[in-house]
Fold:
Amino acid sequence: MSVNINLVDNKNSEAIRREKTKKLRAISFSVLFVTAFLAVIIFAIDYRFSASYVQKQEAELLQELQPFSDVSAKLFITNTKLSDLNQILNKRLNHSKKVRLISDGARDVTIEEFTINSEGTQLKINSYSLSSIDEYLNYLVGLVDEEEFSGILLNSLQSNESGYVAELSLI
Structure:
């Protein structure tokens, strides 16, 4: 029989085989490259967000901030003291408004004594006429009506050579 009889052309099959091999190599190299690239990206992400890396960054940051620890402690203490002082100042009664209101109405009367204590405000006024004292008392009653003070008390009304003297308590 014939050995040289071949139904399939060897040259064509050899070319097809080489082409398939080239395609397979190209596909395998591209898959290898993509796999390596993804592995490097996953490693970088894992390294960037790993606990040891974060702890290392924290230690470096603490080392950088170490010289400022005394300053920050002093600032914290100062800030705390300032806020405490602010609270004390806010709790303290502001008497300047009361003093202004009391002195604004004193036109024809003279305020001889003026004291503010825990019981209220005590006044000792002097005038040559009872009508001036009456006007001033009406002014103070108006302040009570406006709720600047909760009450007014006439402790005494006396007459002497210099005029009339009234002692008042504003609550």
Q: What stands out?
A: The first strand starts at residue 110 and ends at 117. The domain at 96-170 is CATH 3.30.1360.100 (Gyrase A; domain 2). The chain has a mean pLDDT of 85. The chain has five helices and four strands.
